[in-house]
Write a structure and sequence with these properties.
Layout (H helix, E strand, L loop, with lengths): L17 H20 L1 H22 L1 H27 L1
Helix pairs in contact: 2-3
Length: about 90
């Protein structure tokens, strides 16, 4: 495995210079923080994964997908009704 094959959050081995080692560790730590802290990017990736899974599920089980859609619509409709009723009182 070469250095280019390592993930950006890994510290390459074999660094003997303490300054270069500290820089590599800092670079890896900052990359890990950026990956964990970039919430919009993580949400985008998660929503794309969920869309692919839902698409595959709907192709394999159309009746189940329709049932899930109806259930989700009922939950959202009920929530809107409860909120509207609470506001109107």
């Amino acid at each position: 495995m070469t250095n280019s094959d390592l993930p950006i959050t890994a510290v390459p081995g074999g660094i003997v210079d303490p300054v270069a080692s500290a820089r590599a560790e800092l670079k890896a730590a900052l990359a890990a923080i950026e990956i964990k802290g970039n919430v919009p990017r993580r949400l985008d990736k998660a929503s794309k994964r969920a869309a692919v899974r839902l698409r595959l599920f709907s192709e394999r089980n159309p009746a189940g997908a329709i049932a899930i859609a109806v259930g989700a619509a009922a939950v959202v409709g009920s929530a809107v009704w409860v909120i509207a009723r609470a506001i109107s009182r």
